[in-house]
Amino acid sequence: MNKLKRTADKTPQIIIKCLMTAVFLWSGFFWSGVTILQFFINNTEHRNLAIEFSVSSALLLICLILCWLRFYILQFIPGMIGFIAFLNPVKEMMDHVADTGVIFKPTFEQRYLPMIAFAIFSLALLLIRILGIISEKAKREEEFNNRPTESIFDKHSEE
Fold this sequence. Notes:
Order of helices and strands: HHHHHH
Mean pLDDT: 86
Low-confidence stretches: none
Radius of gyration: 24 Å
Shape: elongated
Structural class: mainly alpha
Number of strands: 0
Number of helices: 6
Helix content: over 70%
């Protein structure tokens, strides 16, 4: 019964981690990889964007690995740094596409902006862990405050 309860408590985290993995595979691995290859092979004058995508994708991968290892507080730092670094070249590319009027299928929004969900999931895992720590601390404090104590009368009657 206790093991079943612990598994049920972790179900939201498992679902969130699976969703994070799916988003990362779509935006951070596949489309970022396609973009990195494009800028390193065919469009070398924008190699800096490929480097930015590489670094940000690596940070997001570190975040994802830390999530699966259940380091929910630690994962937030590389996750947010990677997310912000990921959005910078995306914004630059979207501005360039808006200026030229070229149409891509799927659009850059569909390719890269699911990373916003990744950041939200990362924040959710952080909040779940912090609330869990607060709850555990409150439970320990409650146990301490409600544990039985020796009566003063018992001590005096022994003397």
